[in-house]
Amino acid sequence: MNFIMKKYLLFFILYSLLATSGNAQTISQIIQSHFNGSYENYSQYYMKDDKIGATLPPDKFASNGFFKFDFNHGDFSAGFQLESYLPSTLGFFPIPADNKSKIVNKYFKYTQKKFSIQVGDFYEQFGNGLIFRSYENRQIGINNAIEGFKATAEPTSFLKTKFIYGKPREIFDYANAYVRGADAELDLVRLFTKKEDTKITTLSIGQSFISKYQEYTGPLDNFPKQVNANSTRIDFASNKITLNAEYATKSKDPHLTNGGSMKKGNAFQCSGDYTMNNLGFSVIFRSISNMEFKADRDQEYLSISPLNYLPSITKQHDNLTSNIYVYATQIKGETGVQSDLYYKIKPGTTLGGKYGTQIAVNFSYNNALNDSGNVLSFGKQKYSSDCGIDIKKKWNKKLETTLAYQNIFFNGSLQVASHSNVIANLIAASMLYKFANKTSIRFKVEHLFSDNDKKNWAAALTEFSIKSKYTLFASDLYNYGLTKNHYYNIGASVTEKSTRLSVGFGKQRDGLFCVGGVCRFLPASYGFTATLTTNFGY
Amino acid sequence: MKIIKKSIDFIFFIKNTTTSPKKMKNTLLLALLFISLKGMAQENLPSVKLKSVSGKIIDIKELANETKDTPLVISFWASWCVPCISELDNINDELESMQSIKKFSFFGVAIDDARTTKKVKSFVKGKGWNFDVLLDENSELKRALNITDVPHVLIIKNNKIVYQHTGYIAGEEVNLFEEIKKL
User: Helices then strands (H, E): number in chain B?
Assistant: First the structure.
C-alpha cells in the first residue's frame, strides 16, 4: 500500500469516526463529502466428475472478491478497488492468481463543467473501440485500466477532446509499455446552428490517435518499438435515421500471437438504423484485418491487457442451448454483418391483444477475408451464420409466453482444425405465470437439433419466485445425441434492495464462455457456487 | 435482517482479504468503515454526460438538479439482459397510469457496449417504449454509481438516491411503484 493510499485511509478513518459518533447527515452536509462503494464476491467449491471431465484443481475452493470505494468532495473525487483471489476461479485468468489481495485501481479526479483531470487508473474508449478501449469485465476477468493521466476538455459547445497517457494493467501488475492517445470530436450541428430544435440531432466527426511504446532488446534492426493506430469516424442522427462509420489503421505490430507479422492492420465499420413507432431496424457491417492490438507484444492471451475492443457482431442469446456454439471474433481477419428487426403489433388489434405482440428477427453472417490487407475483399470461407425469430406475447396481467427459433452455422475448424462444420436448429418456448401476492413461476424448454458434433441437446428450466424476493431455480441441459451427459443446476437467491445473494449446485460444461463478445475457454466444473453483490453509501 | 446482512458482508470481506498481517490490519479498518458507512446518503450525484437515443446529451447531475422533488426513476438495463427487458416491458405497460397517479420522471440507461449499443435505438422504438434511454457505452455512469449488475433501478429525489434495487423478479415493478408513491 503506497503513501497516497495511507493518506486516504487515515482520512476515511477520521471521517468514519466522526460519522458514527455524531449525526452522520449533519456532518456530511458540513464537509460536503460523500462516499459510496460496492462489494462483489464469486466463490466456487470444486468437486470431481469424470463423466463431464471436471477435474479437481489444487485448491478445491476458489473465490474472486471485488471491493470498490469512491469518495467525493465537491468537484474532487477519489477512490480505489481492492481485488482478492483466494485463488481465482477456474478460467478467470489463464493461470490462476494465487491467494492474493491487492489494491489494483486507485484514482484522484477533479471535474469542472468544461474540463476534467484524472490521475491514477482510468477507463476510456475512443469511438467504437476499434483502436482503444480500457474497461472492466469481472465475469470474464478483463481489466485493462490505464494507470497514468487522463484529461478531457470541452473548450466550446461543439468540440470535445480527450488526452490519455499511462501504462495498461496486466493482471496484478502493469504491462511494460506506455500508451498515449488523443481523441477529438467536432459537433457540426452545434457549430452551425444555435437552435436546439433542428431535425438533425447529431452530425459529428471524430478523430482518434493511439500510440504504444514497448522496449525491444531483440536482434532485429528495424523492429517497430512504437505502434501507432489512427481512426476517423462520422456520426449522423435524426429522429428516424442513425448512421455511423469508422475507419481505423494500425502500423506494423509484430507480436507473439501474429507470429511476428510485419503486416499493417485496418478495420472498417458502419452501422445504421431506421425507426418508427413500434418499429426498429438496425444493421451493422464490420471488417477487420490484423487488428489485434495488445499492450504487451509477448503476451500469449488476448484477454490480458488488450488495447482495443473487437467483439463478435452476432446476437447475444440467453438460451442454454444457443450458447453451445458461440462465434468468437477472428481477430486476424474477418468480415461480417448483423441485422435486427424489432416490431410490436399494436395493442388492441386481433394479433396484438391487449398488450401488443413483440417480434424480433435477427440475422448475422461472418466470413473470411480474401485478401488479408483489404477489408472489402470477401473470401469464400464461411465462419458463422445465425438467423432467428423471437415472439413474445403478454396475454393478460398474469400470463406471458415466448417462442423462439434459431438456425446456426458454425465453422468447427475455428476451434479445432479437425472439427467439422455444425448446422443446428433450435427451438425454445417459455411461459411465465404470476399468481397473486407477487409469487410467480417460469418454465422453459429448449431443443437443439443437429446431425453434427455432439448432435442433439435438450434443456429445461424452472424458476419459482416468492414475494419478488426469493427465487428457487432448477435447470438441466442434456446432451442425448452423443455424450449422454446431464448438466444440471439447482439454486436459490434472495434479494433485498441492492443486495443479492445466490447459491447454486451443479455442473457446467466446458466451452467458450463469452460476455459482451469477449470469450474465454472455461473447463468443465462440478460443485457449489455462491455470489454476493451489494453496494452502500446511499 | 440488517445485522445478518452486515455480518455476511463482513465475513465475506475479511475472508477475501487476509494475506499478511499488514494487509489484514488495513483491510480490517476498511471493513469497519464499510459497515459504519452503510446507510449514509449520497447527496451529490456524479457529473456524467451521456447521449440518449433521442439525440440529447444529458448530464445525470443536472438532471437530478432539475427534477428536484419530483421522483426521478432510472433503470439500468442491456439489450441482452432478459430480466431487464421483462422489467421495462412491464413498467412501460403501466407507466402512463402510474404517472397519472403520482408524478415522476423515468429514464432507462443501456449499458450495452460497442457490440450491441448500435441496436439500442431500434430496440427501444421497436418495443414501443415511451421513455428516453441513455447510452452508457463504457459503463461510466454504472461505475460511478457503484452498480454491479443489471437490472438495477434507482429512485432519486432532491438530488439524493432514496431507493435502489438490484435484479428483477416478476412483480418487482409493483414494489417499485409502491416506493415511488411513498415519496
Answer: 7, 7
Interface mutation target, options B2, B90, B113, B158, chain A, most CBs of A under 10 Å: B113
Q: Are residues B91 and B151 in the same domain?
A: yes
Residue A46, CB-side half-sphere exposure with 13 Å CA sphere: 21
Interface test mutation site (partner B, options A269, A446, A468, A494, max chain B beta carbons within 10 A): A468
Phi and psi torsions of A327, nearest 5°: -90, 130
Backbone angles phi, psi at B177, to 5 degrees: -65, -35
If asked whether residues B31 and B111 sit together in one domain, one would say: no
Lowest mean pLDDT among A9-18, A180-189, A247-256, B150-159: A9-18
Please tell me the distance from the alpha carbon of residue A501 to that of residue A366, in angstroms, as a whole number.
Answer: 39
- Nearest Cβ partner for B114 among A128, A276, A534: A128
* Residues B115 and B146 placed together within one structural domain of the fold: yes
Q: What is the tens place of the pLDDT at every residue in A397-453?
A: 999 999 999 999 999 888 776 678 999 999 999 999 999 878 999 999 999 999 998
Q: Which three cell numbers stand for residue A56?
A: 479437481
Phi-psi region of B47 (alpha: psi -120 to 50; beta: other; left: phi over 0): beta
In this structure, the answer to whether residues B131 and B73 fall within a common structural domain is yes
Residues B113 and B155 in one domain: yes
Asked if residue B159 is part of any domain, the answer here is: yes
Pair B56, B26 in one domain: no
CATH number at residue B91: 3.40.30.10
Asked if B32 and B56 sit in the same domain, the reply is: no
CB B137 within 8 A of CB B114: yes
Query: Do residue B84 and residue B127 come from a single domain?
Result: yes
Q: SS3 for B141?
A: helix
A129:B113 CB<8 A: yes
Non-local (6+) Cβ contacts of B3 within 8 A are none
Task: Tell me how far apart the alpha carbons of residues A425 and A388 are, in angstroms, rounded to a whole number.
Answer: 9
Q: What is the pLDDT of residue B35?
A: 45
- Three cell numbers, residue A77: 473525487
Q: Which tens digit of pLDDT belongs to each residue from B75-100? A: 999 999 999 999 999 999 999 999 99
Which among A313, A438, A538 has CB closest to B115? A313
Residue B89 lies in a domain: yes
The β-bridge partners of A507 are A526
Higher local confidence (pLDDT), A512 or B159: B159
Q: Is residue B18 part of a domain?
A: yes
List alpha helices for B16-158, DSSP H: 21-37, 60-67, 82-101, 120-127, 140-144
Question: 3-class DSSP state for residue A314?
Answer: coil
Instruction: Tell me the one-letter amino acid at A91.
Output: G
User: Which grid cell sits at A60?
Assistant: 478445491
Structural domain total, chain B: 2
Nearest to B79 by CA among B121, B108, B112: B112
The answer to whether residue B135 sits within a structural domain is: yes
Sheet strands (E) in A413-524: 422-434, 440-450, 457-466, 470-479, 485-496, 499-508, 511-515, 518-522
What is the bridge-based pairing of β-strands A173-174 and A159-170?
antiparallel
Looking up cell 470444486 gives: A46
Distance CA A500, CA A62 (A): 20
A12 φ, ψ to 5°? Answer: -60, -40
Whether residue A140 is predicted with pLDDT greater than 80 in this model: the reply is yes
Q: Provide φ and ψ at B171, rounded to 5°.
A: 100, -10
* Alpha helices (H) along A128-211: 188-192
CA A321 to CA B132: how far, in whole Å? 33
Q: How far apart are CA A491 and CA A474, in angstroms?
A: 7
Range(s) of the domain holding residue B13: 2-37
Sketch the domain layout of chain A as residue ranges: 123-311
**Nearest CA-CA distance, residue B132 and chain A, Å:** 13
pLDDT of A198: 73
ipTM score: 0.91
